[in-house]
Amino acid sequence: PEAAPGEERAAGEQQDEEDDLGYRLFPERNKQPQSFLARSLFTFHNRCQVMLRMTLDTNPHARLLLEAMKQSGCTVFNDRHFSCENCDSCVGGGFDSATSQIVLCQNNIRHQSQMNRVVTHELIHAFDHCRAHVDWFKNVKHLACSEIRAANLSGDCTLMNEIARFKFGLKRHQQTCVRDRAIRSILAVRKVSKETAEKAVNEVFDVCFNDLEPFGRIPHSKSDAKRAYKDFQNRDRYNANL
Question: Which residues does the annotated region (Disordered) include (predicted)?
């Protein structure tokens, strides 16, 4: 049977709302999960799972964030909180606050280093979701703050990554990169103007750029992240003895 005009409008409005929230970039979010046998036939999925496990077991950025979330009462479970899916070609991953799941774009993540950065980036969003009442969908400044923190702390803006993008400016390159990537991330997942995204980022930039939790520093390298992880563990031991 044909839908009534009102039903058609409602469906259209619902689709527009989903698109506005960025779900168009993650088309598998609304599908039924595949069986293990079906998933095992796809190389992308297997590769994604192997790289994810390597990141969670060995990457100091991810290990620190997992520890911090556990202590905040938000323990992360691999099977429950990570999902390898096919996505739009413009994204590597996303955090779905409605399900508290990190989406890893198995068709776009091709290298272990890329997996490390994507997992870290999205875990920072998950950490922010755990520790604060983030209004992801209606308050663009909340989204901007988390995107600034994710770009700043995940390794997205290391000097080597910037050089790989053919950006060679050294003066305040971290701030410039973080600002640019935060704006790009907002524009990718929300239907807002560039001016709106820039305004939101500018209004919260200083506070959010200097919010370094749970790292306590900007981890410019893997060795920096290892030191931050060690400091975090020592901080916990000190608090446990109080």
Answer: 1-20
What is the pLDDT tens value at each position of the chain, 242 positions in all? 434 444 444 444 555 555 566 777 777 776 666 665 555 545 788 999 999 999 999 999 999 999 999 999 999 999 899 999 999 888 899 999 999 999 999 999 999 999 999 999 999 999 999 998 899 989 999 999 999 999 999 988 876 655 555 455 555 788 999 999 999 999 998 999 999 999 999 999 999 999 999 999 999 888 888 898 899 888 756 555 44
In a domain, 117, yes or no: yes
Q: 132 lies in a domain? A: yes
| Structural domains counted in the chain | 1
Report yes or no: 22 and 190 within 8 Å, Cβ to Cβ: yes
Closest among 69, 76, 31 to 52, alpha carbons compared: 76
What is the pTM assigned to this prediction? 0.79
Task: Please report whether residue 232 resides in a domain.
Answer: no
Evaluate whether 126 touches 102 at the Cβ level (below 8 Å): yes
- Expressed as residue numbers, the domain containing 99 is 18-219
In a domain, 211, yes or no: yes
How far apart, in whole angstroms, are the C-alpha atoms of residue 53 and residue 99? 21
How far, in Å, CA of 155 to CA of 162, rounded? 10
86 near 43, Cβ under 8 Å?
Answer: no
